[in-house]
Amino acid sequence: MNVQLGDFFLRCAVALLCILTAACSTLPDVSNLSASVLQVGATGNRQENAASRLGNLAAMEAAATGSPLVKGNQVTLLFDGPETLTAMIAAIKQAKSTINFETYIFDQDQLGLQFADLLMEKQRSGVQVNIIYDSVGSIGTSTEFFDRMRAAGIRLVEFNPVNPLKRFGRWQLNRRDHRKILVVDGRIGFTGGVNISAAYANSSLFRAGRRASANAIGWRDTHVQIEGPAVASLQLLFMQTWGTQYAEDMPDLNYFPKLAEAGNETVHVLSSQPDSDYSLYKAYILAIQQARKSIHITTPYFAPDRQLVGALVAAAKRGVDVTLIMPGVSDVGLMYHAGQSFYTQLLSAGVRIYQLQIAVLHAKTAVIDGSWSTVGSANMDIRSFLHNYEANVIVIDEQFGRQMEKAFLEDIRGSEQITLAQWRQRPFSDHIKEWAARSLGYWL
């Protein structure tokens, strides 16, 4: 059995264990979130100019999530894997004191070895490197790979080990750390959907009119780089996750330097984790409920609850341009069919659906009314909002929104539209696959 096939069966076995150990829970009722937020925290200003609408949405979001938005940041959109990896490597090379790195997948491939070597080099030069990697996401990576980094002085935490004997405390196999966070010197932060895997090493799409060969196309994903006061929020998320793992204390260093304003963008760093206040889910629902013109979402795994689907359908019916980019090629067959099980309902309501071709879609992004944008690790599925540790950055800024819209249009050019008439002609066997996948939606 080759390594890739063995890794596939190992991941499937762990996924089955997660299903068997999961306890059903539900997301909160947010059907009237907009009205309730207006009563407790927002201004209620109904002027129609763009500035006042952005201010209203920001106030409502802060009230709904219970956390403030942070002004004075510079946010750089990193379109795909190569842009992201290049920026992260450059920041790591410039590190002077600390590197905190959290990832779901840390593969032992050419890219993973490059990252490990660079991080060990920085550790030996006097920079403290702290790493959190998920036990399921990195299940195919050898223990020796991580032991080599430990021997160099790097502090590593394996998040919720698959093997319950590895760490004392409650065994929580169904709770996974899906975040991707890098914070260098407490001053520059990264987050999004990009893991450390060779799947991201090549360009994912057709930039500047160039269509790459199928063999040279990497996964389509998106990340952001942040400078300014919001970096402290990413740093805090990392340290809070470290604290949940019964690990040794991180070295006592200055992880929170004073941060000056670096730009004009207002940022909200939101997290999703088990037994939380569901702030990320609430922010998504609120933005969809408040949308006036457009909702443009890119998501690889679409298995939402009825409230999220209902919010999208309601937006389309009130005349909002609701457009979704979904995978035409997927690495998870069940999720692929689970997402398609919603197509009839969405298309019938006027939602436009496109499927990205050739590249495996992994980007989790949204831009609403051209001014509310989010990039992060959370998929539009129940697992992301209920069981995973996720991190998303929300940027409330029209200029950044234009960059997001430009990226969205690039993805549209690499996609094929699915029409309702076309969808109704699909084979009966697809109906069966969709029904079966939809039945397992809670556990996917």
Q: Would you write up a description of this structure?
A:
There is one protein chain. By secondary structure, this protein is of the alpha/beta class. The chain has one domain (18-443): Endonuclease, Chain A (2-Layer Sandwich), CATH 3.30.870. Helix content is 38%, strand content 21%. It has 15 helices and 18 strands. It has a 16-stranded mixed sheet that branches. The chain has a two-stranded parallel sheet with strand order 11-16. The chain starts with a helix and ends in a 5-residue tail after the last helix.
Question: What labels would you give this structure?
Answer:
Endonuclease, Chain A; 21% strand; alpha/beta; two-stranded parallel sheet; globular; 16-stranded mixed beta sheet; 444 residues; 18 strands
Overall geometry comes to globular
Give the name of the CATH architecture: 2-Layer Sandwich
Helix content: 25-40%
Secondary-structure content class: alpha/beta
Under CATH, the topology can be stated as Endonuclease, Chain A
Quick one: CATH superfamily? Endonuclease Chain A
Domains, number: 1
pLDDT < 50 stretches: 1-17, 206-211
- Strand-residue proportion: 15-25%
CATH class: Alpha Beta
Question: How is the main sheet built?
Answer: 16 strands, mixed
Spatial separation of the terminal alpha carbons:
26 Å
Compact overview of the structure:
The chain has 444 residues and is α/β, with parallel strands linked by helices. Helices cover 38% and strands 21% of the residues. The chain contains 15 helices and 18 strands.
